[in-house]
Amino acid sequence: MTREQKHSGMRIRFVFGPEAMIGPGKADLLQAIAATGSISAAGKGMGMSYKRAWSLVEAMNAEYAGPVVETSRGGASRGGAALTPLGEKVLGLYRRLQEKAEAATRAEVAELKSVLSDMSGGK
Q1: Contact 80, 37 (CB under 8 A)
Q2: For the chain, where are the alpha helices, taking DSSP H only?
Q3: d(C-alpha 87, C-alpha 82), whole Å
Q4: What is the rounded distance in angstroms from the CA atom of residue 43 to the CA atom of residue 52?
Q5: Distance CA 38, CA 49 (A)
Q6: Alpha-carbon distance 99 to 88, whole Å?
Q7: Helix (H, G, I), strand (E, B), or coil: what is residue 49?
Q8: For residue range 18-49, what is the model confidence (pLDDT) as tens digits?
Q9: How large is the C-alpha radius of gyration of the chain?
Q10: Phi and psi (nearest 5°) for 119?
Q11: Helix, strand, or coil here: 34?
Q12: Could you report how far apart the first and last alpha carbons of the chain are, in Å?
């Protein structure tokens, strides 16, 4: 993902209360955990510390009806992390809502983008 792609487009956050929410950061973390099988590798790939990644996982595990990420301790099998079925459902629902919102607002976003000033710095 290029820097421009990361910082452009729609970024949706759903807030369910003072502590319960999901947005692009948590969704991307869940997706990275699913891809890497590791909280540490997922966080590192996103440029965040293990402590921050673990803190977000703990928050999500507490916010939902059950855990969204399961972990196994290290040792001979080296441990790891995986999304639970609930975690897969949460990530899937968030991505579908994101796609629907982007599709529903495509024309207005294009129009809004067309009236932006040239931000390329003359490049």
Answers
A1: yes
A2: 3-6, 24-36, 39-45, 50-63, 85-114
A3: 9
A4: 8
A5: 13
A6: 16
A7: coil
A8: 888 999 999 999 999 999 999 999 999 999 99
A9: 17
A10: -100, 15
A11: helix
A12: 21
Q: What is the DSSP letter of 46?
A: T
Q: How far apart are CA 21 and CA 4, in angstroms?
A: 25
Task: Mention every residue, 6+ apart, whose C-beta is less than 8 A from residue 90.
Answer: 22, 30, 60, 64, 68
Higher pLDDT, 7 or 93: 93
Amino acid at 100: K
**pLDDT tens digits along 70-79:** 998 765 556 7
Distance CA 13, CA 23 (A): 4
The first and second tokens of residue 117, run together, are: 């000033």
43 closest CA partner among 26, 21, 59, 60: 26
CA gap 67, 60 in Å, rounded: 7
pTM for the complete prediction? 0.83
Residue 55's identity, in one-letter code, is S
